[in-house]
Amino acid sequence: MARNFRPASAAIWWFLASAAPAAVGTGQPAASPDEPILPIPAPSVSAPAKARLGERLFFDPRLSHNDTMACAACHHLDEGGDDNRARSPGFDGQNLPFNTPTVFNSALSFRLNWRGNFRTLDEQAEAVLLDPRLMNTSWPELLAKLNGDPGYREAFAAAYGAGPDRARVLDAIATFERSLLTPDAPFDRYLRGERDAITSDAQRGYELFKSYGCVACHQGKNVGGNLFQKFGIFENPFARRANVAEADLGRYTLTGEERDRHVFRVPSLRNVAVTAPYFHDGSAATLDQAIEAMARSQLGRVLTREDIGLIASFLRTLTGEYRGRRPASATDPPP
Question: Do 10-41+182-316 and 48-178 fold alike per CATH?
Fold first, then answer.
């Protein structure tokens, strides 16, 4: 069976770097159509009634047991689509094993969650609803609430021609989540030929991002999210830890295969400047720390402070817009 995990080799890095346009120092040319990163598309909602219903469900704490937690509790849409915590508290009040991924642009990823254990938004939504450490509900409990609410019965009838049931609830949530794209980032405008959309420092950072080989794993519309990769190709980030948690094992906990030890789904870098802290465990507090750690563990390089700053300048241009505004964050300064 073909696998989506390929270690990023030096040959791939060389090819990507040599195929990229020359470093931008003068002139600010329009981006080449051969760029490894593509502009994110504008959201297209084919079923607006379903999307509106899904949004209502997304913000409703009644979807959880005892009406205590909504999807939006961990996915703040006025910020980066996550909750800016290293690890969120679960239903039982104890910290969850993984950092909460952003929900923005998740529809563009080939798998969902850090271990990539879900293939569809519907599947992932159901797992969240039923997980005892997350929403901790059951379908009988949830559907009794929705069918007992005249407003929900009316909304489901308008969107689906029938009342709430398992398939319709999941479809509505997934339809809304598919609309959570963040287009029109400054870098997207640059790719479309708007030469002054990003600063010269950001352009230099992008060239470094390519020449160092970051694009071997972070490319495409979502700047990642489309393959699995081992965390620790050149330097083991877990070597200095007193205890390696089960979550640190990555896909190994799902497959039991040694080749999947410390293997994770590569995260998207869209809106990365507003989704700190970083990594599966939230162990990198700032964007600079994340860049430095990734260079060491994935590229085998120790970057200068200047290069880290330039790459961070580029990454900040990946913050797009949701409903006409850019997600905010208190953890990272503006460009």
Answer: yes
Asked whether the predicted pLDDT for residue 72 surpasses 60, the reply is yes
Non-local CB neighbours of 316 within 8 Å, separated by 6+ positions: 202, 273, 287, 332, 334, 335
Q: Are 316 and 206 in contact (CB under 8 A)?
A: no
Q: Domain boundaries in the chain? A: 10-41+182-316, 48-178
CATH of span 48-178:
1.10.760.10
Buried b (16+ CB within 10 A) or exposed e, 51-88: bbbbbebbebebbbbeeebbbbbbbbbebbbbbbebbb
* 46, 159 Cβ separation under 8 angstroms: no
Instruction: Report how far residue 261's alpha carbon sits from residue 252's, in angstroms, rounded to the nearest whole number.
Output: 5
Specify whether the CB–CB gap between 205 and 313 falls below 8 A: yes
CATH topology of domain 10-41+182-316: Cytochrome Bc1 Complex; Chain D, domain 2 (1.10.760)
Distance CA 314, CA 322 (A): 20
The pLDDT assigned to 328 comes to: 75
289 by Cβ neighbours in 10 Å (0-12 / 13-18 / 19+) ranks as: middle
* Statement: residue 335 has pLDDT above 90: no
